[in-house]
Amino acid sequence: MQRKALILTDGKAGHENQSKAFARALGLDFDVAETRFKSAFHKALSYLLDRLGVNTQSLFEVRAPLPPECAAVIGTGSGTFYAAKTLARRLGTKCGVVLYPRGYRMSTFDCILAPEFDRPRPAPNVVQIPVNLVANDEAFYAAGTEAFLARHTPSGKPAVAVIVGGPNKCAAITAEWMKERLERIFAETPDAEHWVTTSRRTPPDVEAVVESFPFDYRLIYSKDRFNPIPAFVKLARTLYVTAESTGMISESCTFGTAEVRVLDNLNPGRHKFRRFVEDLERGGYVNGSRKVDLSAQFAKARGLLGL
After folding, report:
1. Residue 31's closest CA among 90, 91, 71, 78?
2. Is the distance from CB of 226 to CB of 199 less than 8 angstroms?
């Protein structure tokens, strides 16, 4: 029987997908259980109790039955770190987490898969990775490309694709900024076919600017929820992504063959989004066609988890 991991999710799709990607990279099937701290106070208390070596299930709820055994407990994000460590001990197995569990005792996690932009302290149980994990596989991209080609027939010219995100606490995106960037892209690539997709975070005035340009293929998320990104990743020669879209940048730098370029809409200052892009630039993954290979990191993680 295939051994399974127990994935703990905080309900955030981005976190859950990274846990699933980690489990698949470890060669494990998985069950998923949602976990929640009982309150903000209980979460704050978890940091103190963990420092004291106390791991108790009384601080959180698990909204699914626990398996009698599992190969590992996996969690991504601060809502899962304490629960993952606690339940791994209860089940007599090991604990692997994604993202850096700052504030908790690092040495008592069996494996920490930490993004380089978090600047984790080197330790035997810390495995650094340059991107966020992506749960997709080749079958996902094949199906997505087939669906895209049923909607759009490429002309045969090289494709230049643009993925437009939206503002967050570290990034802004305005109609004027978008117009300037698209004008530059069209001016620099006159012999290409141009594709674009917006996202759920794209403001309406920015979507209006996108609609005003003569794209050969255009997806406006507020009007059509189809996902063309798998095809963009697999088919485009050059792929532009707004800088705050770390998940899309990670995906573009991991799969396909496109040269990835980042449209810098980040606010001034030093923050993790800036560090993330700069690290990828230095590695040749951004403004270059080098792709991320995590096989060595996953091999180390399997060893740490005894798999």
Report:
1. 71
2. no
The residue assigned the tokens 């197995």 is: 93
Architecture of domain 4-130+294-304: 3-Layer(aba) Sandwich (3.40)
Q: Where in the chain is the domain with CATH 3.40.50.1950?
A: 138-283
SS3 helix, strand, coil % of the chain, rounded to 5? 40, 20, 40
Which CATH number applies to 138-283? 3.40.50.1950
List, for residues 52-87, the tens digit of each pLDDT value.
999 999 999 999 989 988 999 999 999 999 999 999
In angstroms, the CA 53 to CA 20 distance is 28
Question: Alpha helix (H) ranges present in 227-271?
Answer: 229-235, 246-254
Q: Which amino acid is at 84?
A: A
How far apart are alpha carbons 202 and 190 in whole angstroms?
A: 26
Give CA–CA dist 281/273, Å, rounded. 13
Q: What is the pLDDT of residues 221-245, one digit of tens each?
A: 999 989 999 999 999 999 999 999 8
pTM to 2 decimal places: 0.87
The span from the CA of 18 to the CA of 123, in Å, is 22
- Amino acid identity at 164: V
**Hey, which residues does 238 pair with through a beta bridge?**
160, 259
Q: Which amino acid is at 227?
A: N
> Which residue type is seen at 206?
V
For residue range 279-307, list pLDDT tens digits in order.
999 999 998 889 999 999 999 999 999 99
- pLDDT band (50, 70, 90) for residue 2: low
